[in-house]
Amino acid sequence: MTTATPRNPFIRLDAADNVVVARMEVPAGTEVPSEGLVTLHPVPAGHKIAARFIAQGEPVLKYNTIIGFASEDLPPGTWMHSHNIAFGELQKDYRHGLDYRPTELLPPEKRATFQGIKRADSRVATRNYIGVFIVGHGAATVARKVADAFDEEVLAGFGNVDGVVPYVHEQGAGMELSGEPMDLLRRTLSGYIRHPNTAGALVIAQGNEHNALDEFLAATGLQPGPMLRTLVVGEAGGTRKAIQAGIEMVARMLPEANAVKREPVSAEHIMVGLQCGGSDGFSGLSANPALGAAMEILIRHGGTAILSETSEIFGVEHTLTARAVTPEVGKKLVERIDWWLQYNAGRDTQINGRVSPGNNAGGLANVLEKSLGGAKKGGNAPLMEVYRYAEPVTQHGLVFMDTPGYDPVSATGQIAGGANLICFTTGRGSCFGSVPAPTVKLASNTPMYVRMTADMDINCGVVIDGEATIAEMGQRIFEQILRHASGEPTRSEALGVGRNEFVPWPIGVTD
């Protein structure tokens, strides 16, 4: 009878690291033969211990990357976290474009396909919605009531329409009449209205917004027609009459919106917005690098991956600038990082060191460690372009969009830019969803996946469990992306999550 070899309770990520990560909750006094030490303290799952003596002020290395500095002398086996890992300034070599290596694209005839919806302008949709939009918050109730009139019973006769969704926000008034804040709001709304997944749109105004309806249409070049209708509450005769008029307008769009079919199209039409939220110490070991591996596959098939959350790549942005297609693209990213540093100067925010309480409890000591894991969602693909928030994404491959770290705001910008699918990694169990582009949820650890199976689509915890490699998980994720792009509902879609997660970046709200 043979005895199974006990699994190492800690994971070594790189030979040069001076920390190792707990695979599970580990009691004090646990022997770690692979490192020749004994744990000095209880260690929560996903947290770190010193793998050797680390002197005060010495860099702490994870994935052979600095995540902070020892705030005191740390004997081997010491539990290491924000209480003894200090946040500090890093010297970065941006190496703009010096490490660029072009992706070897598969020839068109060898690229994967999915069942997509071809639009008249040759773009491809993964879903088919009618949207009810507002230019300012004053029309929110009307928009909600118009959309709510089209429940499952009403839409039963329109099987190719995924739903009628209200896109309600709190902007459009109490802000500058022109300038970046207004441009940003209009760019976001326009991006959703023009999105391939939006078959038709109704745009509603109260009638006295700063974001005036006529000016919004003129600024964005949107032209009303049979599938883009407008409604002004005051001109319609008030709330009740506006609701009825809006319902009638949407009803007239339904037959044309329904007249679509899915057909095989190239995976080059898939554009994925990359998100992480409720991250833990395993996110950067399993879900994020596995998603990165999937994105490398997608990019080889001609597709696009949008990395974002600018404040959450701070500290590792040089790993992206080094593989930028040109020095100019790398410098665009640094310019956005500099904007965030200036904007957050003197504030108690993440970019200045501290992560959220949930991230911290999950094993992330500071923003450097979080950024190290978060950037892995893009894999090792070259950086092809940098976009501002909600700008239309036209470049294929790995691109970056400047967004806040707050998931609903960030994903809203990505979808406005054209993302027709969102992939969202989580270690703590974030329940985000989105429309019109669906969200695929990837769990970083098996215990959370088991607890929240109804919310999670993919369990990347099997990497931590030793049951799959990063490459194997990347292939699984890519294949599931193709299925969801073909119409297979995600867990968040089945739960109806996403109708309230439209959150344009509220920069510039002044009164």
UniProtKB/TrEMBL annotation:
Similarity comment: Belongs to the UxaA family.
Record flagged with keyword Lyase: yes
Keyword annotations from UniProtKB, A to Z: Lyase
Domain SAF: 17-86
Lineage, opening ranks: Bacteria, Pseudomonadati, Pseudomonadota, Betaproteobacteria, Burkholderiales
Protein name according to UniProt: Altronate dehydratase family protein
UniProt cross-references to InterPro entries, sorted A to Z: GD_AH_C, GD_AH_second, SAF, SAF_UxaA/GarD, UxaA_altronate/galactarate_dh
Entry keyword annotation includes Nucleotide-binding: no
Domain of life per record: Bacteria
